[in-house]
Automatic annotation (TrEMBL):
Localization of this protein: Cell inner membrane
Transmembrane segments: 44-71, 91-109, 129-150, 162-184, 190-212, 277-296, 317-343, 355-376, 383-403, 415-434
Any Pfam family matching the protein: MatE
Membrane-topology descriptor: Multi-pass membrane protein
Name this polypeptide is given: MATE family efflux transporter
Amino acid sequence: MLEGPILASLLKLAVPIVFANILQSAYQLIDAFWVGRLGGQAVAAVSVCTPVIFFLFALGSGFSVAGSTLIAQYIGANRQREADHVTAQTLLMVVIASVILAVLGHLLAPLLLDGLGITDAVRQDALAFLRIALTGTVFTFGFSMCQALLRGAGEVRLPLYIVAGTVGLNVVLDPLFIFGWGAFPALGVAGAALATLVTQGLAFACAVALLARGKLGIRLSWRNMRPDTAVIRRAFSIGTPASIELSARALAMNVMVVLVTGFDTAITAAYGVGMNILGFIVIPALGLSMSTAAVVGQNIGAGLLERARHIARLSGVIAFLTLSIIGVAIFLSAPQLVAVFVPEDPEVIEHGAEFLRVVALTFGFMGFQMVLTGAFRAAGKTLIPMTLTLISQWGVQFPLAFVLSSATPLGGAGIWWAFPITNVATALITWLWFAKGHWLTATLAHEAPTSKQATSDRPA
């Protein structure tokens, strides 16, 4: 990662990450596939829960960003002891945060759903799905953190194998829990959430066991679990802007759901299906963004700043071209894609296809912005992505969606048009910020040691 060909280094990490993310997204896609067989109301119930779950997940995800950033830079600087110490501290913090958020979310679930203005026909299924999903956040958070830490250390294959195994199990559990079999009762929409809870719990247990072995570039040990104020402060300084960024994005998604639910159930279901497909489409850019963050972070830790800058530029171009090609394919096959999830609802298919076609040709801009944002995070400059999100989601997308859907003849389609405009505008602002170069000015790994417990290094 520090001396080899840049493209090879990126692809070595990006390809396994992309496949892992594809499989991870398969949880939602498998859920959507089977829930779609229950009808449009069931799809709408899951659709309105997704932004709520993402919002709570975002609140605790800043620690994952902080952990992967620090791990990458410490590994690049050959400071193994600090890397091991950060591993334990950040994993401990994210587990504690996820338990607190799960309890609060479970108690506040009815109020959260009422705030979205959903119909009575959808509310019961949505509440059951949301409460079970929130119960499993400690596993989802924990496994996500383990993946981030391993990614920072350059290990991406084993998380892929874990995800592959648990997704395979989810394929079996989803129809079993949703429709029942023999003495096992049919749980409906709630069954999809329960299947994910079980499989994510297994994934987290496997990841912790692998980290404890200490043969993947970093080691998880009990002696590093005692809370360390120096590490906590540093993780908070990096992670808090990341949490605000992701929370602001998730809150914007919730507000968009409020706009969507102001129309009929077909629009709500179309939005849910469309967002599931979009989440799957951006996976190549997300994988490249994550691999870029790991490679850029290690090069920053090693003091190779110009190489780090070049890696980010190359990744941005690759993401733009890749997602532009995917966008054309989605534009041409939009109705068929939507029909996979809601095969017997022509109205949902029509609205969902319109959504995809409006957005598809700007996928390249979205990918470009995501990759450069990964470079900002690798440098520890999480305030930049936070600011970009606040501008794009709250300064551009939501106001546009509100105006276009309520004050123009577009109606519900006005929400769709806010997406491509936001993608292009955000990509241009991100490029201008990147080109100024001020984001690449400091190396976290060359600052003071993280704690009194981590003042000496051992070879990486």
